[in-house]
Amino acid sequence: MIAELNEILENEVVDENGLWKKKITEQSLKVFDRLPEAIQEQLIATLDQNRNVQIRILNS
């Protein structure tokens, strides 16, 4: 899921309508949707200088 999110965030715009979710696998979408909303928001909002998701800084 993280690799897929990295690729989308690097190349796509994450829209409020969730169209970007159609570009990840069904399994990754299920995992993402099971996460608390706050974690979901952090995953798509916290990128490092290389435009990768920063897992280590997520609030848990």
From TrEMBL:
Q: What's the domain of life for this entry?
A: Eukaryota
Q: Does the keyword Cytoplasm apply?
A: yes
GO terms for biological process, alphabetical: glycolytic process; photosynthesis; response to glucose
What Gene Ontology molecular-function terms does this entry list?
Answer: diphosphate-fructose-6-phosphate 1-phosphotransferase activity
The record's Gene Ontology cellular component field reads: cytosol
Keyword Cytoplasm in annotation: yes
Keywords per UniProt: Cytoplasm, Glycolysis
Quote the protein name from its UniProt record.
Answer: Predicted protein
User: Which organism does this sequence originate in?
Assistant: Arabidopsis lyrata subsp. lyrata (Lyre-leaved rock-cress)
Highest classification ranks of the organism? Eukaryota, Viridiplantae, Streptophyta, Embryophyta, Tracheophyta
